[in-house]
Amino acid sequence: MRRLLxxxxxxxxxxxxxxxxxxxxxxxxxxxxxxxxxxxGGASAPKSADAxxxxxxxxxxxxxxxxxxxxxxxxxxxxxxxxVTPSGKxxxxxxxxxxxxxxxxxxxxxxxxxxxxxxxxxxxxGGEATLIVSRFAGGGGDAASNVNRWKTQFVTADGAPLTEAxxxxxxxxxxxxxxxxxxxxxxxPVMPGSPERYNEPNSRLLGVIVEGAGDPYFFKVVGSDKxxxxxxxxxxAFADSIxxxx
Length: 246
Hints:
Elements: H1 2-16, E1 90-95, E2 98-103, E3 107-110, E4 116-122, E5 129-135, H2 143-151, E6 154-155, E7 166-172, E8 175-186, E9 200-211, E10 217-224, H3 225-230, H4 232-240, E11 243-244
Antiparallel strand pairs: 1-2, 2-11, 3-4, 4-5, 5-10, 6-8, 7-8, 8-9, 9-10
């Protein structure tokens, strides 16, 4: 009986004793790393530095898009178009060794560059047209080569190369006078050697090439057929009047 009581007391004492302080506690399990906090405003996490940022305002590329069209050819606005009735009156002028008779309605101006001897303004319903008188040191080619070159500056209404021109030559010693009349769409270069060209339907070229007095003279006007039709007869008379001065 005494032995049983002692055993009970011992068990009770062991159960109520505090844990041993000298024995280290078992290490805690490592905590899982916390996920990075999302940027303010709900924005997504930054992308890798290798990936370029997309432009949210960029226009998507259309794989079926066609290239931009080339700039349209140049069409000049008519200058001061007005109805004109030739009076038939003429005045005599001298142009660099040649004498001519021209309609009083034609206005003469000095040449705008060294190769132009004079510029004559012809008024008309299709707008003003400028008759340029030029001469080139060393010649500038004979009449036939210049007529062929002028034809390349025109095409037909459907865009085909122009093959016809009205050409008349007259021998008035010591001069040979060649008159040229070309109609069609003017597609001459805007400036010599320029890729930009005019595109002017219903245009006309009236020209005169004068040979036999040294370097040839070139009289050339390109403009609306409506204006040059007014002066067709006067231009023929003008060409017939050309003669050496003095």
